[in-house]
Amino acid sequence: MVGNHEPAVRLGSYLGVTAAVAAWESLMPRRVRVLPRLRRWPGNLAIAALNTLAARLVLPAGAVGAAGLAAARGWGLLNLVSLPFWAAAILSVVLLDLMIYGQHVLFHAAPPLWRLHRVHHTDVDVDVTTGARFHTLEILLSALLKIAAVIALGAPVVAVIIFEVLLNAVTMFNHGNIRIPDAVERVLRSVMVTPDMHRVHHSVEPQETNSNYGFNLPWWDRLFGTYRAQPFAGHDKMSTGLTVFRAPKEQSLPRLLTQPFRQPDARAHLPQ
Predict the structure, then answer these.
(1) Residue 148 half-sphere exposure, CB side, CA atoms within 13 Å?
(2) Cα(120)–Cα(2) distance, rounded to whole angstroms?
(3) Across-strand partners of 178?
(4) How far is residue 23's CA from residue 117's CA, in Å, rounded to a whole number?
(5) DSSP β-bridge partners for residue 240
(6) E strand or H helix at 124
(7) How far is it, in rounded angstroms, from Cα 177 to Cα 125?
(8) In which residue ranges of the chain is pLDDT below 50?
(9) How crowded is residue 139: how many other Cβ atoms within 10 Å of its Cβ?
(10) pLDDT reported for residue 269
(11) Non-local CB neighbours of 139 within 8 Å, separated by 6+ positions
(12) d(C-alpha 253, C-alpha 153), whole Å
């Protein structure tokens, strides 16, 4: 079955896109780094490896397994209506992307969730490894929410695989510290979230942190009024990260894992 190959497909896509974006960053960087890669990458890559292991141990079937279960039991909206397969697949990918947007807004809005999510935002640089820097508890909670959404929707297995591969690949791409010609970038951001669009979300300024929540499709931010075209200070001069946890020692794996349980105030950067 196609679901049996899902881990290999996702891993291959993830590694391929990560390597390509890392090379692009070296050849055509968008911004000057605050810290060298050797101070940030070990922690970011270590937490990514830990998250992969934790997800496989705690939720081995994941969203793809949930889609297979929903199909077998006839659960979910799309298993109750008659749609061509292609229409059900496209609708599933779009609606799952909307769910990810809503989840992202929620993780900014609720203080306990923000404590977890801010680990992603305390990276003082934004590059391809930032796309894999999430607290392990956030990864597990996000996986549970995704499973619930897949079952409620009744998304086909193939659609969920496509969505997972796209989400992984685009997340690594739009965190890249890469330079794209302005004319090309303006066209791209009409159909996908670009690095310049998403970098605004990593600004140290709270009103910019609380904008551009999309990961894959760029339309939700425009539809729900959370779109910001450019950072106020410009991409070259803007500061990324948060005003807290900026010391170089905070980039290590132990410090990343304990950040949610340490002060300062969890309400910093929350929407007012």
Answers:
(1) 9
(2) 32
(3) 29
(4) 27
(5) 203
(6) none
(7) 9
(8) none
(9) 21
(10) 62
(11) 51, 54, 55
(12) 36
**Token reading at 226:** 């959370």
Closest residue by Cα to residue 116 from 261, 245, 264: 261
Note the pLDDT of residue 270.
61
Residue 10: how many other CB atoms lie within 10 Å: 19
Which residues 6+ apart lie within 8 Å of 58 measured at CB? 140, 143
Query: Which ranges of the chain does DSSP label H, i.e. alpha helix?
Result: 6-27, 37-58, 62-73, 85-109, 111-121, 136-153, 157-174, 182-188, 195-199, 206-209, 219-223, 253-258
3-state class (DSSP) for residue 181: coil
What's the CA gap between 159 and 90, in Å, rounded? 7
Residue 10, pLDDT score: 80
pLDDT tens for each residue of 37-69: 999 999 999 999 999 999 999 999 999 999 999
- 8 Å CB contact between 149 and 99: yes
Q: Using alpha carbons only, how large is the chain's radius of gyration in Å?
A: 18
Q: Both ends of the chain: CA-CA distance in Å?
A: 48
- Total residue count of the chain as it appears in this document: 272
Exposure pattern of 22-35 as b/e (b: 16+ CB <10 Å)? bebbeeeebbeebe
Residue whose C-alpha is closest to residue 146's, from 190, 208, 104:
104
Q: Which class for 231: exposed (0-12), middle (13-18), buried (19 or more C-beta within 10 A)?
A: buried
What six digits make up the tokens of 232? Answer: 């106020």
The helix/strand/coil state of 203 is strand
Contact 120, 175 (CB under 8 A): no
Instruction: Using alpha carbons, select from 250, 272, 253 the residue that is nearest to residue 122.
Output: 250
